[in-house]
């Protein structure tokens, strides 16, 4: 067994002596900040390039461009590659720049280099989270102000617009559509019919007495036969159920997309942490061995 195994290595020729003991921290924050800056810059450039590339695959027309599933898979793979490559580069730079204390074994030095890579990853994640939160807050504040100004400046117009696009109001219009242009239903009756439809959609069932009442109202207000009025009630009730099912499906799809996005983000961050550790250890080894990468020294 080699008696020198595990002993602190001899500093290479030209190495600068560094103070040891309680007066000197093993954490080199200058190298960590430098690696974080590099990782953030690379991540920003690659994400911007990926956004432009993603727009070329998407289309505003239905049936054109990449499918939603394919686009999600491509975006996830791109995000993973961006995170791994940027943090590996930042970790490598930190390991290369870290001022080594020659009071540790090679294994301990690797652990310290890798720990600096993890600090680059942690600082980069925190900076990214703060920037994302600030951007989201700014967008939310701008949207709130814009909505407040719009509502305050044109309250009556906004109310009319909301009524026009309200699905329940549209269903009520279809149900009480008059036989002539001048024969209109009063607001109280429209509100009552709307409440019946909303309650039925919420409960998932249109009661027989409500169904018969709606048919009688339609027949009285529109002048159609009882059978036609009943058919109109059934048709509008089916449309109301379709709208409710569509709304539930959209909400459930948004929930699934959010869950998958959160899982992909967490997985990519964990993998990028390992990449930052590996990059820092590699950079530290190259630092100790004074490895020269062709093209990085005097490229001119």
Structural account:
- With 300 residues, the protein is an all-alpha fold.
- The protein has two domains: 151 residues, no CATH class; 92 residues, no CATH class.
- The chain has eight helices and no strands.
- Helix 1 packs across helix 3, helix 2 packs across helix 3 and helix 3 packs antiparallel against helix 8.
- It is rod-shaped, with a radius of gyration of 33 Å.
- It starts with 28 loop residues before the first helix and ends in an 11-residue tail after the last helix.
- The N terminus is likely disordered.
Write the layout of secondary structure elements.
Elements: H1 29-57, H2 68-97, H3 106-153, H4 155-165, H5 167-175, H6 187-203, H7 208-222, H8 226-289
Helix pairs in contact: 1-2, 1-3, 2-3, 2-8, 3-8, 5-6, 5-8, 7-8
Helix content: over 70%
* Beta-strand content: under 5%
Low-pLDDT segments, ≥5 res:
1-6, 150-165, 179-184
Helices and strands, in N-to-C order? HHHHHHHH
What overall form do the CA principal axes indicate? rod-shaped
The first-to-last residue Cα distance is 48 Å
- Overall number of domains: 2
Radius of gyration: 33 Å
Say what oligomer this is. Answer: single chain
Overall pLDDT score? 74
Secondary-structure content class: mainly alpha
Largest β-sheet summary: none
Q: Helix segment count?
A: 8
The strand count comes to 0
List keywords for this structure.
300 residues, disordered N terminus, 2 domains
